[in-house]
C-alpha cells in the first residue's frame, strides 16, 4: 500500500465533504415528499441516508489516516533532526579535538619559540665576543648581525598575514648576515 501524503488525503476529504454536502441537500429536498408519503422519495431518502452514513464513516477514516500521515511525517522529521544533531555533534567533537590538538601544538611552538628568543641574544653576544677574540672585524651595519631576535619575533608576528605583508624570513636575514663568515676561508677574513 502506498503512503498517502496529508495533502492527498486533504484532497480526498474535500471531495467527500463536497459529495456529502450534495447528498445532504438531496436529503433535505426529499424530506418533505417522503413525509407526505411519496414512496419513491422514501426509497431515495433511505438510500441517501445510507450514503451519508457511509460518507461520514469514510471521511472519519480519511481524517484518521491524515492524522497518522502527519504523525509519521513528524516522527520522520524528528528522527532526521535527531540524526542531524548527532552527526553535527560528532563533527563538533572531532573539531573540538582537532582544535585542542592545534592549541597544544601552538603552546609547544610558543614554548620552543620562547626558548629560542631567550637564547638568541646570548648566542649573538657570544658570537661578537668570539669575533673580537679572533680579531675578525665584521661590520655590525649589516642587517641581522645584531638584534636578530627582533627579526625572529617580527617573522612570527606577521606569519598569519598575506604573503605580501609578511616579514622577511629570519633565516634569510641570518644567512645574508653570516654566510660571509660561515663560508670564508681563513685568508678571506
Automatic annotation (TrEMBL):
Organism encoding this protein: Roseinatronobacter thiooxidans
Name recorded for this polypeptide: Uncharacterized protein
Top-rank taxon, per record: Bacteria
